[in-house]
């Protein structure tokens, strides 16, 4: 069933009695050509593009809980294409272009809102870095605009421009960036994949891989054995756990990132604003809550909750940037498990086991990448060659010295 | 999190800086035949377990000692804290 204004009026006239579930709830088949492990944003997007763009069939998505219950429902919903390095920016630009056409592609309202992302800077050196980044973005077909202090003031007059230690000198404005309703991304991809014949199997945990002669044959799951021609793993924070079942170690540590929502306020923030002198980023949801976050906690963890020192640190950053939030009450906070890689960039590659493919290492930047991640992972699964925008995301980049280290922090995952 | 420092007693984890898996104490032999791949594994590959994890913490805001802390990564419960020097000298990290 397609969604449209006409359909909405029709259903309104007959008491909304004609709506159907957005996706089926099928029993697992004995075998599939493609099995995607992980029913989050990336896994569902992979299934969607595999079926729709690459015309593959006999595809299943296995999810241990319910779809969209992990990081795709736990992030701060920001999309942007403002990376610096050549290995990254073409990929994120592809992602932003896919976001721009997402709702038509999926026939689903994901509330993509290009309200702008403004990265503030507070010193001459940061201005130089912002100018360089902006030029890099423009060279890769993205958009960037350097604002001076008055330019920032006209966008966001409520910021603390007179902070003695970190005065706002300007910002790098990325107007095509913005926010998306994150749950709708999972649901939209799931519905579209389902309409293209993909089996989405929930409450089905992968407990092991069946591997013979270095070739993967299928997965053992909590709902029995499922054979597979090719298996793609896209499980974010659980990457280490799942891939260890195939005997693999990864250049990844799992860390927790916390996010926060304030009580609902009247519209106050024009777009996404990031503080350049501390780690704090904030936007306002359509319901009015300020959605904000900061650094990861910094130690290995699989618990989807963090500790209070980071809460204090994030709120201090917020107060330094926009003191007006001082009387706003925090409504909710939560944590998500991040697959922090050794250079801060993802891995989308074959493994040394035939038929087993891996997509992970997204650190805390996986949400914006969802469409492109699905698109290039589907490309890899369908054609066995990396997509042209993802040729740098290989396992062997670490031994070859070809790291994609945006922050220049080295092999220290908690610093990326 | 409170880390039970073996010399100073219970200390707030905020006084410490986190480095990572305690296997970083076992530096490979740079003269070995396979030194290149051993250093790759040492530098980049991690077990990243969900459960008991031995890890290095540096008491930067305290006595500047390195500790090996045994902690459950699913609950944040700290099971043990030892001086990294003792662990390294006893050769207990290989596991």
Report on the architecture of this protein.
The complex is a heterodimer of chains A (416) and B (95). With 416 residues, chain A is α/β, with parallel strands linked by helices. Chain A has helices spanning 5-13, 41-52, 89-100, 102-106, 124-139, 149-155, 182-195, 239-244, 308-321, 370-383, 397-400; strands at 31-37, 59-62, 78-79, 117-121, 145-148, 170-174, 178-179, 199-201, 206-212, 215-221, 224-233, 252-264, 272-275, 280-284, 289-300, 330-341, 347-350, 356-360. Chain A folds into two domains: 26-108 and 182-251 and 343-415, FAD/NAD(P)-binding domain (3-Layer(bba) Sandwich), CATH 3.50.50; 117-176 and 253-341, D-Amino Acid Oxidase, subunit A, domain 2 (D-Amino Acid Oxidase, Chain A, domain 2). Chain A is 27% helix and 27% strand. In chain A, a hairpin with a 4-residue loop joins strand 14 (280-284) and strand 15. In chain A, helix 3 packs across helix 10. The longest helix of chain A has 16 residues, at 124-139. The model of chain A has no long low-confidence stretch (mean pLDDT 96). Chain B is of the alpha+beta class and 95 residues long. Chain B has one domain (2-28, 35-90): Folate-binding superfamily (Folate-binding fold, 2-Layer Sandwich), CATH 3.30.2270.10. Chain B has two helices and six strands; from the N terminus they run βββαβββα. In chain B, the strands form two sheets. Chain B has a four-stranded antiparallel β-sheet. Chain B has a two-stranded antiparallel ribbon with strand order 1-2. In chain B, a hairpin with a 7-residue loop joins strand 4 and strand 5 (66-72). Chain B is globular. Chain A: Keywords: Cytoplasm, Nucleotide-binding, Oxidoreductase.
Offer a few descriptive terms.
heterodimer; A: 416 residues; alpha/beta; FAD/NAD(P)-binding domain; D-Amino Acid Oxidase, Chain A, domain 2; 8-stranded mixed beta sheet; 18 strands; B: 95 residues; alpha+beta; Folate-binding fold; 4-stranded antiparallel beta sheet; two-stranded antiparallel sheet; 2 helices; 18% helix; 35% strand; globular
């Amino acid at each position: 069933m397609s969604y449209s204004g006409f359909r909405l009026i029709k259903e309104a006239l007959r008491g909304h009695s004609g709506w159907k579930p957005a996706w089926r709830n099928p029993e697992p088949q004995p075998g599939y050509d493609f099995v995607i492990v992980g029913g989050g944003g990336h896994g569902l997007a992979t299934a969607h593009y595999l079926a729709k763009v690459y015309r593959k069939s006999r595809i299943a998505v296995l999810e241990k809980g319910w779809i969209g219950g992990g990081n795709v429902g736990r992030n701060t919903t920001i999309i942007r294409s403002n990376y610096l390095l050549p290995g990254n920016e073409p990929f994120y630009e592809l992602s932003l272009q896919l976001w721009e056409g997402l709702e038509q592609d999926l026939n689903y309202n994901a509330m993509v809102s290009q309200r702008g992302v403004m990265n503030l800077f507070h010193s001459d050196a940061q201005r130089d870095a912002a100018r360089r980044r902006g030029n890099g973005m423009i060279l890769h077909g993205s958009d960037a605009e350097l604002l001076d202090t008055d330019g920032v003031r006209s966008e966001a007059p409520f910021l603390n421009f007179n902070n003695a230690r970190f005065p706002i000198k300007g910002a790098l404005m990325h107007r095509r960036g913005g926010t998306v309703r994150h749950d709708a991304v999972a649901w939209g991809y799931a519905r579209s994949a389902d309409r293209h014949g993909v089996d989405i199997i929930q409450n089905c945990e992968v407990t092991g891989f069946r591997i013979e002669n270095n070739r993967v044959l299928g997965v053992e799951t909590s709902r029995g054995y499922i054979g597979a021609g090719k298996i793609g793993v896209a499980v974010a924070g659980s990457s280490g756990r799942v891939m260890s079942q195939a005997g693999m170690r990864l250049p990844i540590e799992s860390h927790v990132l916390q996010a926060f929502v304030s009580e609902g306020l009247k519209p106050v923030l024009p777009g996404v604003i990031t503080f350049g002198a501390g780690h704090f980023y904030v936007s306002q949801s359509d319901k009015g809550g300020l959605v904000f976050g900061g650094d990861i906690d910094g130690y290995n963890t699989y618990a989807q909750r963090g500790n209070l020192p980071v809460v204090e640190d994030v709120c201090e950053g917020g107060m330094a940037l926009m003191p007006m939030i001082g009387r706003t009450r925090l409504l909710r906070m939560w944590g998500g498990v991040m697959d922090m890689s050794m250079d801060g960039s993802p891995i989308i590659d074959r493994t040394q086991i035939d038929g087993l493919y891996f997509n992970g290492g997204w650190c805390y930047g996986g949400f914006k990448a969802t469409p492109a991640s699905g698109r290039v992972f589907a490309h890899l699964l369908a054609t066995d060659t990396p997509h042209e925008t993802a040729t740098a995301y290989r396992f062997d980049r670490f031994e070859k010295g070809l790291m994609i280290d945006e922050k220049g922090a080295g092999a220290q995952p908690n610093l990326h | 999190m409170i880390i039970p420092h073996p010399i100073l007693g219970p200390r707030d984890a905020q006084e410490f800086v986190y480095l990572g898996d305690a296997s970083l104490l076992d530096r490979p032999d740079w003269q070995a035949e396979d030194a290149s791949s051993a250093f790759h594994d040492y530098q980049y590959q991690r077990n990243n377990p969900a459960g008991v994890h031995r890890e290095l913490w540096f008491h930067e805001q305290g006595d500047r000692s390195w500790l090996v802390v045994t902690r459950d990564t699913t609950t944040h419960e700290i099971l043990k804290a030892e001086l990294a020097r003792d662990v390294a000298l006893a050769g207990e990290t290989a596991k």
